[in-house]
Amino acid sequence: MPEKPASVSWLWTQVLTCWKNLTAMSICLIIFALALLLDYMKRRKKCGRCPPGPAPLPFIGNILWFNRKNPSESFRQVEKIFGPIFLVQAGWQNFVIINGFKLTKEALGSKAEDFIERPALPLIFLLGRTKKYEGIILATSHNGWREQKRFCVSTLKTFGMGKKTLEKKVCEEAWYLCSELKSKEGSPFDPKISIFNATGNIISTLAFGDRFEYHDETFLKLIHSTEEILKDLTRMVPEIVFARSWFSYLPGPHQKIKKHYDNFTAVLKIMVDEHKKTRDPTFPRDLIDAFLEEIEKAKGNPETSFGEENLIHLMIDLFAAGTDTTSVTLLWGLLKMILYPEVQKRVQEEIDMVIGRIKSPTMEDQSKLPYTNAVIHEIQRYADIAPTTIPYMTYRDTEVANFVIPKATVVICHLSSVLKDETMWEKPHDFYPEHFLDANGKFIKREAFLPFSAGRRACTGEQLAKTELFIFFTTLLQHFTFCIPENCPKPTEERIYAVTVTPAPFQLCAIPR
């Protein structure tokens, strides 16, 4: 008889335990159902005329289809299904991807004002940039960006962009580069460091007032920090584009970017302090002096973007962007020359006939060298080093291809699809300099040639980059024949997707002519 109450007690305990477990499970199911409902409400389209796109997964959206090793291929695959404009989602953020020359021209041409803002990428917060001081490349405020762009364009012109003075400096640096290559004495080497140093010195001349010796300690710190920042950014591209602002506060490998950024900042602050001690307000020597003068003029204006903090951000933007893009394009150019020796020979013959081997090339020679000019343009088109634009954010509701893109939507233009648009280029997937030559061998401009993007946010240093590419490339081909080292395998044309698309590391020999 005494066992019965014990059995009843045990049974009652089991019933209560099951009820508690069932209640916990029910609560979890209810919470999950509410989360799914919230997810659906967050991601449902806000209009019936939004671009089509793949169905997103709950909470994560379409992140899984993104191929970080080849993002262009991801866009191409979705374009085949949904057309040249489509919508994808990362979390609860909508992204509209625009493909092809026709739609890119519509968005960044006649409707450029609608795409003037930038979204607040986590990178801004990670690097300590505030809404007021964002530099120029990632600036989200179009007012601050306009102010900084006006300053950059006018100051770069003051210090020679588009003028003989800058051409002379590029020519001088090209000679230093040639001396560096001659020191290799025809032995195999990787040209990356030499090219990076040369292009870095052009930005240094404009920003700091002088060039550096290639082995200067300060210069090496700047170059090393730049390379490390770009390398770390490469590993984090999807997170930097798709994540939200809170991402910057989490621990993880992305914090290494901040470490290298701080190292770069420390070197620049020393230079700025030296400029403050030695500058003459009536005679600015370089971009730092000019910016310090603008800070003085803007004192008392709470809305200005001119502050010492922004000077540092601007300098890093110019140094990183101006060095990396030009050097990577030149690397692709040298790779193409060793893979297409017949093209290299024809370029050299034209240079020999028009300029000779003593006189330094200048921009005046560009029109006299149609084939060389065509080869440089085809290198840019084929290399396609910036496959997408930096993300835009719509300033207001707008339409592209009769689809509505609501205000504050993030928009990315797929520039690869423009430079390799099959409706615009005869041989879009081949290296074909004749794309830029008419039947009489004269150079022709092509409407779909947009390596520097277009619209209000197009590359500020486009003219500088064109000058560097022409003078560096022509000078190198004037003085050297580049070839694959003996007993070495033929280099591949593998594309490594980073902040810019670089060729896989390769070696060559530079044989003096």
UniProtKB/TrEMBL annotation:
Question: Which is an annotated Pfam family here?
Answer: p450
Q: Where in the cell is it found?
A: Membrane
User: Which keywords does the record carry?
Assistant: Heme, Iron, Membrane, Metal-binding, Monooxygenase, Oxidoreductase, Transmembrane, Transmembrane helix
Q: Which residues bind heme per the record?
A: 459
SUPFAM superfamilies hit by this protein: Cytochrome P450
Keyword Transmembrane helix attached: yes
The UniProt GO MF terms for this protein read: heme binding; iron ion binding; oxidoreductase activity, acting on paired donors, with incorporation or reduction of molecular oxygen, reduced flavin or flavoprotein as one donor, and incorporation of one atom of oxygen
Q: Name one GO cellular component term.
A: membrane
The record's Gene Ontology biological-process terms are: arachidonate metabolic process; xenobiotic metabolic process
Top-rank lineage group of the source organism: Eukaryota
Which cofactor(s) does the record list?
A: heme
Q: Which residues cross the membrane?
A: 22-41
- InterPro entries xrefs: Cyt_P450, Cyt_P450_E_grp-I, Cyt_P450_E_grp-I_CYP2D-like, Cyt_P450_sf, Cytochrome_P450_fam2
Tell me which family the UniProt entry assigns to this protein: Belongs to the cytochrome P450 family.
- Please report the name of this protein according to its UniProt entry: Uncharacterized protein
Task: Report the source organism.
Answer: Anolis carolinensis
